[in-house]
Amino acid sequence: MESVQLPAGVILPSRTLFGFPRGAALIVAVEFWERYSFFCVLSILALFVTAAPAQGGLGWSEGRAYSLVGLYTGLMYALPVVGAVFADRFWGYRRAITAGCLVMLAGHLVLASPASVGLGFYIGLACLIGGNGLMKAAFTVLLGSLFDDRDPRRDAAYAYYYLSINLGGVAAGVATGWIGGRYGWHAGFIVSSTGMAIALLLYLLLGDSWLGSAGRQVQRSTAKRAEPRSPAGMARRLSFLLVLALLLCTYELGSYQLFATWTLFIQNSVDRNIGSFVVPTTWITSLNFAVIIPATPLLAMLYVWLGRRRCNFDIVRRYALCLLLGATALAIFGACAALSSLGGKPVWIYPAVGIVLMATGEMIAWTSTLGAIYQLAPRQLLASVFGAFVALTMGGSGVASSWVAQFAAPLGLTRYFFGLAGMSAAGAVVALLIRPSLQRLLVRAGATMPSGISQ
Asked: For the chain, which terminal residue's Cβ has fewer other Cβ atoms within 10 angstroms, N or C?
């Protein structure tokens, strides 16, 4: 079989699938099943721990459930920075992914067993957190390593990668809502373990033939191949990414309400009836992912159309728009909570609109962010920078949300949601105010403002 030589020294099989390296298609498929298993657990976690023991749950209070979901998701996204160091410096991406998937599968199997009502519950979650930490950043960088730096297909591949995450989220919400609702919480955990097993099987069976040598090298051995950049210029680029991370933290603090306060509010205080049918809560929350499936390619085409007319939004403007959409979504939930506090029961369509708006903001932010990190980070530390960015944004926001959630009960959900909405709106204003300074920072670093998919 003929191969092509990439500038980074990676040997790939020459055969493609839908115009992309077959390895990219494999990564997208494995990511779908891995995220499917992740969101199966996350979509029912708060419901499981607050359900009465007679219903197969743990009987926790809502406040304790909020803290668990925030801490669990926060650690899920914080620990990849540790796994990234191992991948960059010691193991290489491929071995880090294999080890991470094996540990995650063990965690899913523990949660699916009867032991999940005791100590096994914490062991299972710990395995999921640790396994995800080993493989998450490595997966993201492995995808980028399949393309030349000037290959326009790389941004499209990241868009499909992001799309696979959300397809997994939709499938997880539907599967756990239907199976878990009929056969119990442990059936939902069994469904999640099945998805992880498929992900690992695909990776082990097809990895060698579809990925070639990509991801086998340890990055310290190829650091000399990285493009020359001055320490001062690199510090400015990383400072730019740090500002983006702080802005995104503000948005994610609101987004993290989806599987905690929003889920339990929809379950307990929203009219979910369509005629005689009661819509499962997980179906409503899965709209967070469903809207992104048709919207991602449309957004990519919009970026191209705007770029050709020289009116393309740069990444800071996109972040501002993302934060405004998040503020609107939180304000909708605040209004629904106000109605509920007066004895009313808001119809499910209003929270659904809020979820769609929040998902749209997330899509705008993250489809731009992946390419921006790959563009600005040093090549020999790509996984570490990806991991650090995710740790600060998703991890830091998750941990912060577990702390902030303790104010939901004393403040009341109305003031709590409106307070988060005001913070998100303020973040949008700050982003626009500091944009000129960020442009100057990148000019001094010899870089241009990232523009995401259409760059």
From this structure: N
Kindly give the pairing relationship between strand 273-274 and strand 20-21. unpaired
Which tens digits make up the pLDDT trace of 145-199? Answer: 887 766 767 767 877 888 898 899 889 988 887 887 788 888 999 999 999 999 9
Measured at the CA of 192, the angle between CA 80 and CA 182, to 5 degrees, comes to: 145
Can you name the residues that pair with 277 across neighbouring β-strands? 274
97-126 tens-digit pLDDT: 999 999 999 999 999 988 877 889 999 999
Residue 9 placed within a domain: no
Q: Which residues contact 108 (CB under 8 A, 6 or more apart)?
A: 37, 41, 124, 127, 128, 189, 192, 193, 196, 197
What residue has token string 């960015």?
A: 389
Domain count, the chain: 1
Whether residue 1 is contained in a domain is answered as no
Quote the domain boundaries for residue 421. 19-454
CA 233 and chain centroid, separation: 29
Which residue, 333, 327, 346, is CA-closest to 413?
Answer: 333
Q: 81-103 burial string, b = 16+ CB within 10 Å, else e?
A: bbbbbbbbeebbbbbbbbbbbbb
Cβ–Cβ < 8 Å for 284, 352 = yes
Task: Give the start-end residues of each E strand in 47-100.
Answer: none
Residue 7 lies in a domain: no
**Token duo for residue 66:** 């909020």
Burial label, 279 (beta-carbon count in 10 A; 0-12, 13-18, 19+): middle
Residue 16's SS3 state is strand
pTM for the whole thing? Answer: 0.76
